[in-house]
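Assemble and predict.
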Amino acid sequence: MTRRPIRFYQVGSFAVGNRLLEDEERTVQSDAKRTNSIDSGHRACQGCGEALGARYALDAAMRATNGQLAVVNATGCLEVFSTPYPETSWRIAWLHSLFGNAPAVATGVAAAMRVKGRDVRVIGQAGDGGTVDIGFGALSGMFERNDDVLFICYDNEGYMNTGVQRSAATPPAARTATTEVVGPHPGNVFGQGKDLPRIAMAHDVSYVATATVADLHDLEAKVDKAMSLHGARYLHILVPCPLGWGSASSDTIHLARLAAESGLFPVFEAEHGVVTSVTPIRRRVRVEEYLRRQKRYAHLFATEPATDVIARLQAMADANVARYHLVNDETANSDLEA
Amino acid sequence: MLAQIEGSKAIAEAVARCRPEVVCAYPISPQTHIIEAIGVKVKSGELAPCEFINVESEFAAMSVSIGASAAGARAYTATASQGLLFMLEAVYSAAGLGLPIVMTLANRAIGAPINIWNDHSDAMAARDTGWILLFAESNQDAVDLHVQAFKLAETLSVPVMVCMDGFILTHAVEGVDLPDQENVDAFLPPYVPRQVLDPDQPVSIGAMVGPEAFEEVKYLAHLRQLDALALIPRIATEFSESFNRDAGGLVRGYRMEDAETVVIAMGSVLGTLKDAIDLRREAREKIGALGITTFRPFPEAAVADALRSATRLVVLEKAVNPGGRGVLASDVALSVPRSPLSSVIAGLGGRPITRASLEAMLARAASGDLPAVTFLDLDEAAVAAERARLADVT
Ligand SMILES: Cc1ncc(C[n+]2csc(CCOP(=O)(O)OP(=O)(O)O)c2C)c(N)n1
Ligand code: SF4
Ligand SMILES: [Mg+2]
């Protein structure tokens, strides 16, 4: 397992343009000639992480494929806010059929392109519900057959389009409309949920990666890498949702960063089921720092803070740090011990 | 080319000659022999360039077909019964997106209780999906309908389902005249999609449509089905000119000239029915049959025209609409509102429909004592016993 060297410690290393970098190392987003795969004017909430994630990922994929890309979208916020008939935000070939079938539809598109002798690459995409829940059977089938599709999950940890209900990607303790803050265990329960990146790895697909909208360089590099490979590939992007998380619109990037830096959302790459690189945590933070900024966890910080629940969430973060070796000696300028 | 061949294999041959580009299916009896036979052809390279994709469910099979068709490939699949229900959400999606997928439905009952044998309940679940539904009377008919189905689907950009009775047709070995490749090529031009997923001319397919335009979208789909009613007979004529035999069309009459009693039916039961009618004709009963080839869109005008001088109608069908008369009976009743009509439910879950019981039923019909709804060959004693048992329990 190799570690990605960290080039800069200042926040600027995350920035879109980043004048500290050579031209060719700058992001696709900093390029005025980027595709604008998902154009402005769509109806996403202000600060929507999913809109950002999709734009970053697809612009990068368009560059990687020289524009020879077709995208299949599941039902969900991304589909709804991007195509209010008769308008569309998509400047790319885009197809939506149903909530639960995007991986299979993508397989069909890829097969058609192959029989037509066209070198068009295919991306399937869905929210966490469309990926880990209702689309899971189709996704597992697509993985197992090693179909030539990159599937991207925009994980906002809930069914946002239908009004913030629990999905199997909703974290423990989080409030959703179906895991309300009532009863002896307010919010979502512990001990449930699916870890889709690891399930994808168990399918032995050529490439699995996680990313967040906080680290654009990393996200684009992973899309690039994914598009350099063939067969089934999976990219799981954490995309904060101000509406569902009860967070400030201006906090989306910050929250995505805190999710990674707390260890709650490990950022890594794997090839054929083996982790090949991790993004080390630069400045480890306690989970509280992440949780406090979101109303979905507000019940943990009432007059009587739920220290036991917070400790269990911290333990989950610690387990991720240990499993993926997210903290190394050089980067261990953590304030966690402080 | 004449061949003594199993129905499923004949379908595979016909579909192969239609040069499908993506075939994706999930096994379910009695459809399996069809996809197995096509699978062999694809795997051996005989159909290249064509992909055969084994998937994890019927939902995926229809979804893969949707993706393939939207990206410009000629897509084919086949299913039956529970499989059709499992994919139903995608069946609607294919029609809504206007994708000319062709699917064979090897008609089979729907559980519970689970039952693998033939009836038409599965097709009834697809009757309002926006697919064109054609019913085959024989294996020759099924073969010919498949060739027409691709042309129909692609001309209108509407998906077409060819229904053939499970086991009774799919597993029957009989003589079939398989269409020659050159004739099929001349009849069926390569698929040119109306709209295609192509990065060189990017379009958004499958956008969300709200109340301001949804009704118009659906009305346009309705008009396309009306177009189908005009196109289906034209394609049937073209077919008979190219292949020198009749197949397809909206409805087909049998001994209708002076018929007072007409039995309306779909699928393979028409064969037995025609034999029974011949026998009743010998007894000088004025009786005929009307076969419904195109079940969706329902050819109201053609049915009304065919039945204009009939005085007594019997709709014989292999599907049940619990608590009501049969689905086909309702459609026929709407087409000829003033004619007295008896709904006969028969052949459910593979119960054989014998010539003898049809003859008895026809005799009752001719003497006017067939009730509004009849379940043919019902084991009355078993039903009475069960009702008595339930009465005891409650
Ligand atoms: C078969 C089916 N079940 C339920 C729905 C309702 N539905 C539409 S989008 C959605 C939630 C989407 O959640 P997710 O995939 O996480 O995407 P998000 O909106 O959060 O981005 C649900 C439940 C549907 N469209 N189809
Ligand atoms: S609800 Fe969340 S995911 Fe949906 S548009 Fe708003 S911010 Fe984006
Ligand atoms: Mg979601």
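The mean pLDDT of chain A is 93.
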